[in-house]
Amino acid sequence: MSILIIDDFQEERDLLQTILQSAGFGPLLPVGSAREGLQLLGIGQRGKPATAIDLVLMDIEMPEMTGLEACQQIRLEEQLQALPIIITTAHTTAEDIQSAYTAGATDYIRKPVIPAELLARVATALSLKQEIDARKLREQELLERTKELDRAFEHITTRHGTIHICAKCKRVKSDGSYWQRIEDYLRRQARSTVKEAVCETCLHQAYPHLKQMP
Known about the structure:
It is a single chain. This protein is of the alpha/beta class. 46% of the residues lie in helices and 14% in strands. It has helices at 10-22, 34-40, 67-75, 94-103, 115-158, 182-189, 200-206, and strands at residues 3-6, 28-31, 55-59, 85-89, 107-110, 164-165, 172-174, 178-180. Helix 3 (67-75) links the parallel strand 3 (55-59) and strand 4. It is rod-shaped.
């Protein structure tokens, strides 16, 4: 799963890249500014980005555009609402952390970075991203299946237009002049399981003596 690393210091980018590569994470996309990162994410660009990104590691203090400003722009994109963003920062007061979460960050890591902490938080974020992606896929499959069932039902209910039913014997006219029992018609057209029974009114008319039975 691809990780976008945004930091204006080359040393910090190299450090993060080395730690993540040694643990088998990748591909890694290091850039030196928030604007470059937003371009890779496809923000402000026409069409979908060339590379799908599963996680963003981003510094806060950067020239031109801060990490918090970049977070806010990312969260304005509907398709990036669930993208994990981990802030890497030396500013770890309660106010700083609250500002990061308010801007849209999902987690933060203190600088200087501790390798074990970095790997644990990255693994957790990517695992959550996989679960979210899998859930979206299931929801999309369910939506498509529901549409298919709706189309099938509409086809069944509208394919014949007017249905002719005998007023006396209640047989259905189909295939030209052929009349068939309504049970057989339903079995063939709706593919439903049809069970025969006798309603109470018909039962009492045919067997009036049963009314007297306790």
